[in-house]
Each structure stands twice: as C-alpha cells, then as structure tokens.
Amino acid sequence: MTQTRIYVPLTPSDVQALAERREVGPAPVAAYAVTRRLERSLPTADEEEWEYAALTEAVEAAEAAQGTTVAKRVVAAADVDPAWVEDDATRDGLGAVTITSPVPLRLVVSLHVDETAGDQGMQDLLWYDVTELDEVLRIL
Questions:
Q1: 29-61 per-position pLDDT tens digit
Q2: What is the C-alpha to C-alpha distance for residues 31 and 93, in angstroms, rounded to an integer?
C-alpha cells in the first residue's frame, strides 16, 4: 500500500496526549507533507530535499504553536493513507496539508525534538524512534 509521509507539529501537551490516547487527533489534523506546491517551488530538488522542506515548515509551525511559551519544538513524522491527506492552501507553508483522520500511534515512525528549549533552526533537532516516546516525554 502506498503511504504519504506527513510531519505533524506538536506542543509538549500534544505529545502527552499522544502517549495517553495513542493517536494524534482528533481530526482534522494540521500537518505538512510534500505537495505539488512545494515541489514546484523547488523544481531542481529531489524527494529528500522536498521532505526536508516539509519538515522545516512543521518545525516552524511547532514553534508558532508555543506562543510566548519557550519549550522544545516537537514534530511527529508518520506514514498515512494518501486518501487522508488534503492540500491546505488556507495555512502558511507550501507543504500545508490537513489530515482527515486521527493518526494512530502505530503509523508514527519518529519524533524530532529540540536538543534544548528555545533552539532556532534545524541543526539542533534530535531524532527519536517512536518506541522512545517515553524518553521524549521525560525530556520535555
């Protein structure tokens, strides 16, 4: 089955809810993915570069969701059914999509977390396998 990789910006309380409810939701879920708009904006890029651009937009959205709170930015990467993914031109970001179903924990493949709170940019993101969710909760 074909799947679409999505990047979901999360707050620390969203990560806690993911651990408790075993899903990201309820739907609709704001996320980022490789869209036709994103591909057209980077015509010489490859799939890996497009995915990095979508992840970058999700990290920026995770930071914006914090408001005035300084906390670690978190993004969940998941592989979902393409039928769940709809382009969303109403939000900022060329990779903005809406997920029409809650995303079960079993579809989340990794969590990307700031090394320290208040980090800017992508160089300080740490990668965690979804099986390390308890560790991510601990460091948040």
A1: 999 999 999 999 999 999 999 999 999 999 999
A2: 10
